[in-house]
Structures are given as structure tokens and as C-alpha cells.
Amino acid sequence: MTHVTLTNVRPWGAEPVDIVMSGPEILAVVPAGRADHGGDRLDGGGLLALPGLVNAHAHVDKSWWGKPWVSYAGEGTTRGRIAHERAVRDSLGIPDAESTTAVLREFLRHGTTAVRTHVDVDLGVGLRGIEAVREAVDALDGAIEVEIVAFPQDGVVRRPGVLELLDRAAGAGATSIGGIDPASIDRDPVAQLDGLFDIAERRGVGLDIHLHDGGELGAFQFELIIDRTRRSGLHGRVTISHGFALGELPANRQRELLDGCAEAGIGWTTVAPPRTAPLPWRDMRDLGIPIGLGTDGIRDLWSPFGDGDLLRVALGFARLHGLRTDEELAHAVELASTRAAGFVHRPVHDIVAGAPADIVLLDAENVQDALVRAPRRHLVVSGGRVVVRDGELRV
Fold it and tell me: Cα–Cα distance between 242 and 246 in angstroms, integer?
């Protein structure tokens, strides 16, 4: 297999090295000028090198990217946004493989090489969204790795037939199935969780539940999920998305729930939206609770915002949580890369031998500078091949 060597780069701002790649894997990392594996060479110009970014929470099927501007409308609540989306998405041709491809291309342009995306599965769209996402991934010829969470945005038990669709999606290759606000959307949390856990255990897939409910109503649902995870075979395979209630609770209540999540191996994804309560991220880190960052929806019927740059999401996390020290700022970047490896089923995701050959080069003094400026990505290598050069896509 032909080797490609990326020379003279600074992983995480450290001393310059050469990175030898063999196909889609990093073969060796050696001091600059010491690589002797032959093959093609790419001059890294002394730039800062980061692992490819990992988007742990996206909705790439929902976007109208590439279409004429769509003005925000609908009632600004979870239920209101769901209803508005269901009312107008067909008229806009959503889901659409072309728009999904455009979103994935923006992810790549900003250095994201692996994505975990929720894809709507409901009575109106069936499994067409999953088909559109797979078509988009194929169009990019493997330049970006995408895992699918089959997501019941419109509810589960309140929409008879959705559980069957989720079961079909799990059987057809979705790596996880989702749920949403078992209490406030379905108004029957036990029934929703019974159905979801049954499918996840039978199909051997993960489970990811969006929780928007605040305060003690949210905490009650955390408790139900923790209990069900303990009693199931899904230890380490359950994720809570958003979980806004956690930051709203008193410290002692937070700790009870975090201890339960740590024991059950439950992870967390957040998009760090402004004006929400900060997560107790230090306690989560110390307890080993995985946190992944994501872009959520981009230019969709929920919000006109988003550009696909996960570094900007990491910066939003840093600002929301009051991060200031160099160590804390570096941690925010780790959440968008190395620490998110498990969300895309990677045992390791870093610039080390044996890791995927996913590398991003930026003109930045150090990791902290890269976070606060989010400069252009000069080079993006995904699976050992160059997919972005000088900020321009090559796929």
C-alpha cells in the first residue's frame, strides 16, 4: 500500500513532526525530517495539526442549504417547530440528497471528518430521509464518515407505526435509534422507553434520546433512562441529547443524576446553545461521562443559523461555560475531536499511530488560538486523502 507523509506539522501545537499515513490509517508519527517510508509527501509548512473534527449531533437531512432563503416561521416551542416543519417540509423538497450533500461538504470544508446525524423517521417521510443521507454520503465517495440515528422527531407512541419504522431502520443499518421528550411529547414516558429499549436490545443498536424538558420534569426522565439502562444490556450505548434540565438543577441533585449516568455508561451531546444553563462539565469529565459537541440543524425550519464549523460550536461551549485557562480552552477542542471518538465508534481518534488518518491543518499559534479565531482550514485529510486544500473542497 502506498504511503503518504505529511511533513513538518505541529500536532496540538507541539514540536514539528512528520505523519506517515498508510491508506486510511496513521502508520507513524516521527520528529520532523525523520520519516523514511517513501511514497508521496505533502509539506505541512509548520502549521498546527488537529485530528479531524467529530460532529456528534447533527440533523443533515433537515436543511434547505442550497435552496432559496426560507424565512423563519412557526411557533417558537418544541411542539410548534415540529408542527411547522411537518406542515411545510414537503413543499420545500425536504429531505433532499442535494441539500444534504451541500451540508456535508460544508462540514468537510471546516475540518469535520466524522458525523453522527439524527435522521427523521416518521409516518410522513418514512425512511426517505435515511435514503437521502446515504445518497449524499455516496456522492462524496467516502470523504466523510456518517453514522445514522433514526430519529422520531414527531413522537413515538403518540404516532402508531413509528416504532415499526424505527425497527426497520435499525434492521437496515442505523447504528442507533432515537427518542424525544417521553413525557411532554408522548405524555407516556414508560411506554416510549419500553418500545425504544426493546428495539435497541433486539437489534443491537444504540439509543439516543432528545430531552428538552426542563427542571424536575427533565430530571424525572433522566431517572427513568438511567434505571432502564441499568436493567438492560445497553450499558455504554445510551446517549442523552441536550438535557437542558441538568444545568437547571441544584448541585446535589445534579450529582445524583451524574452518578447514575456514570454507572450506566450514559453519554451526553450538546450544541451549547446560548441562554441555556451550563452543564456541570467538570463533574462530568471527572466521572468519565462522555460529552460530544454538534452543530444540530443548519439552515432548517427550526433555525436559520449554522455554517457547519464545529470549532465555532466548541467556542460557544467555552463561552457558555466560562472557560478561560489554556487547559480549559484545549479541553473544548478535545470535545470536538479526540473525546468524541466513542460517538462514532472509534477506539481512538487522535494524531497517533493506529488512529484514522483524519487530520486538519490551520494557521494558528496554538490550540487556544485556533479555538478563539476559528481560522480557515488550510488542509483537511480524511481517510488518508486530501479532501480540502487552501479552504477549497476537492471532492
Answer: 9
Stated pTM of the model? 0.97
| Torsions phi, psi for 210 (to 5 deg) | -70, 125
Q: Are 227 and 256 in contact (CB under 8 A)?
A: no
**DSSP state letter for 36:** -
Mean pLDDT of the 344-362 span: 98
Task: Indicate the helix (H) or strand (E) that contains 100.
Answer: helix 97-109
Containing H/E element for 40? strand 40-43
Segment (H or E) for 246? helix 245-248
| β-sheet with 112-120: strand ranges across | 53-58, 112-120, 145-151, 176-180, 206-211, 238-242, 267-270, 291-293
The C-alpha atoms of residue 41 and residue 341 are separated, in whole angstroms, by 27
Among 263, 267, 281, 258, residue whose Cα is nearest residue 329: 281
DSSP 126: B
Write out pLDDT tens, residues 323-344. 999 999 999 999 999 999 999 9
307 by DSSP, 3-state: which? coil
Residue 351 has pLDDT above 90, yes or no: yes
pLDDT digits (tens, 9 = 90+) for 246-271: 999 999 999 999 999 999 999 999 99
Neighbours of 3 (CB within 10 A): 17
